[in-house]
Amino acid sequence: MVEHKKEIRHDMRVVLANLDKRWEAAAQHELGLELEKLFTTQPFGSIEHILGWVPCFPGEVDLAGFIAQMLRRDRKVYLPRIREQGVMDFIQIGEEWGAQLEPGPRGILEPRLGSGELFAPQVAETVAVLVPGLAFDAQGGRLGRGGGFYDRFLARPELQGALKIGVCWSMQVIHGTPTDRYDVAMDYICHERGWGQVSRG
Q: How crowded is residue 153: how many other Cβ atoms within 10 Å of its Cβ?
């Protein structure tokens, strides 16, 4: 399984690094619209907290437009910050969040410490986590970049019941991602061609 994961990661990195920029710009717009549609559906009516990310890797989805829409609709939005021992926290951002970012330990932009409130959910059912990855499948399987940050974060007891949305390009949805017992499954997958609730049957 380890070698299979390495192979998929390598292939997806190559694909993402060579995306046509015109296609990427158009797909980015379409994906933002699909995410907005998803967040108008019934399961998302009680969502108050949205956890997103800042793109760092070639071809990675940029959530900036969607984040701006959610902030205008008074949703609380958070971005990740990495601390010691590979632990990931999320910090709340405001409308001027672009000016509150700084490079983290891995060179990824993240909110400055103290720039916003630390994410500490009281009710998991009010939380939606947008999750990046290199590959996803229709059963909610996800293949990340190998650091385990999201799997460790999503496994926290206080997040059981939060909605987990894998966000990617349609070409990243494959037939069966290699997963193990530490990999946390998604509840929804959203890309530029649409969105859907996963089937684990």
A: 19
